[in-house]
Amino acid sequence: MRYILMTLLLFMTCLSVSFAGNRNGDVEARIDSLMSRMTLEEKVGQLNQLDGRRNLPYIEQLLRTGGIGSIMNITDPEEVDRLQKIAVEESPNGIPVIFSRDVVHGFRTMLPIPLGMAATFNEELVYDGARMAASEAYEHGIRWAFAPMIDVSRDARWGRIAESFGEDVLLNSRMGAAVVRGYQTDSPGAPHTVMACAKHFVGYGAVEGGRDYNTTNITERQLREVYLPPFKAVADAGCASVMTAFNDIDGLPASANGFVLDSILRKEWGYDGVTVSDYGAIGELMKHGVARDREEAARLALLAGTDMDMATKIYTGHLPDLIREEIVPESALDSAVRRVLRLKFRAGLFDRPYVGPDLNGGVASSENMALAERVASESVVMLKNDGNVLPLGRAVRKVLVTGPLADAPHDQLGTWTMDSDTSLTVTPLDALISGYADDVEILYEPGLLYSRDKDTSRFGALRSKASEADVIIAFLGEEAILTGEAHSLADISLKGMQSALVELLSSAGKPLVTVIMAGRPVTAVGEISKSDAVLYSFHPGTMGGPALADIIFGKTNPSGKLPVSVPVHAGQSPLYYSQKSTGRPAAKIRSLDDIPRNAYQSVLGHSSYYLDVGVKPLYPFGYGLSYTEFDISEPEPDDTLLSRSDTLRFSVTLTNSGHADGAEVVQVYVRDVHASLTRPVRELKDFRKVFLKKGESRRLQFSLPVSSFSMYDINMKEVVEPGEFIVYVGNSSTSGHSFSINVR
Ligand code: NOJ
Fold first, then answer.
1. Average per-residue pLDDT for the chain
2. Is 41 in the pocket of ligand 1 (CB under 6 A)?
């Protein structure tokens, strides 16, 4: 009888609710009616998210009593449906659970790591990649993905820089929004969509010293100008949820931080999606030393605005009593439960709680592989190409392929690859052999077996193969395990004997092409200087091999741009182009060897740089070469005297003046020349990636609202102060034409 009632109830729910957005009156009424029937324990149950890899019998028990709202990390569709059936048919109110997973850069078919996706500077492509990831995840029962990660990341030592879209505010905002749209689409809840979760709210990218989980020092102004805008952008794009960060912000850990969660996210932005803690983060309030016990942790987190508790059971353990004792008002619980139920309606779970029969079977399809290859291809950044050694031409007869990343099917996928299948990976070696071995002889000797390998016993064989080859291609970089969560490094140079390998190869006197496949910008000054050409490929995913092989042989033209500055030395961290002006900007930089002995201090001048490594990155943000040449004409503004409510409009002509078809990323930066507070020397305000045939020109119009040049003044008010702004239009953060505008 109970089953029949439950089925009837679900049927009625489906009849009354066809949910397309989160402000649907029917849905709110349906939520009211559901909540009026829920006990206190059932309500708290909705806020409980547990890891399906742990203690499943206990989770099943909770499903029957309505004591759990979400299950993480189960990706077997049959198991998902079995568990869902318990929730739908046996729990008191038949509320489906929502299955969640870290779908960070693909599911089975792996895209490049997010840092690589950012390097494409191509939002449409990132959108397509996110659609593909969502579709594959959906086929495995996932309806809630913990991505995009939009922590502005300016310290290459931090392992999680791999998961981010890099150092820039706008790039994180636009790429994050592209992922949200790709996951959720305009019809969230339709088959093959998943709910997005923007993380980590907020400031996680600023962990001190790049050490994971560390404390942060972020002023409110920096929070508002740097770390919050990507979250605002994804909230505006309809992102269904937000995950709290592990770090503290000005002393208050994010999961208990009412300033960011309640005052800013809820009240200032009016955000009505779900907030979920990071894994165990509510429990960590005790380790942070701000909660005495689990009960206090529950109270602090809920009252601050953390709706769902990931993996600690602290809410189910303590909220019912805290509410009965009126220590926590029931209204706070109700608001959180309402948001979780709304998420489930939004995900379409009340209409279609089960995985089948809406499958399309497209997991790891040839279309998905082709898309992964395109994203990988556009993510490759050419840093150097002396003597146009690339692309390899017809004269090349024998190519030596070497290095620890040449044939590393696991490592080229990067971090967050639990659902990948390394047997699908096409490595550079595979691709060079399958695509080019008919025309050129491919010799292979890895030299080193993995990035940390210190065993040089293969170097003899390598030397003799190098002497035979016309060209050498060395695939260097990092193993996947050296990047990602909890994998920070103090020294970000190439590990193991990779430098010695490059030394050996360069002594062979053959053109040397170095490909770096890594989860961060590594420091490789020596290796790069000994190479004739360098391609930087952030761990490029399943189809990284063909993407790189086709670039090397000129079938495709590299078009990636750096989403992060490449440091000379880790000691420059944090390193980013949008530095504030100092009172003593770097001037007359000397090298350590030029410093006279026994001189007095003033001999070196007094400016802001390191005596040993200067101040500049090896390669700046936004930089990347092509096989063709692009010219950007002088910008022509419609008007240079503008008011704060105006839009700056200007146009440039982009010309592909070289000998190959290709793409350029036109980048627009702005500098506020004089303000009441110090401003960054440049800030990216717009970018556009344009594909042009050789010889082709295109007129590009840009429209930038003057309001987007805003800052937070001393009273923390968002303002555009009158005065001069310089607008730079170029193809990196250090190049380009400029013009001035005056804002009244
Ligand atoms: C911890 C990570 O910080 C977060 O990004 C991830 O989504 C959760 N674990 C869940 O796996």
1. 95
2. no
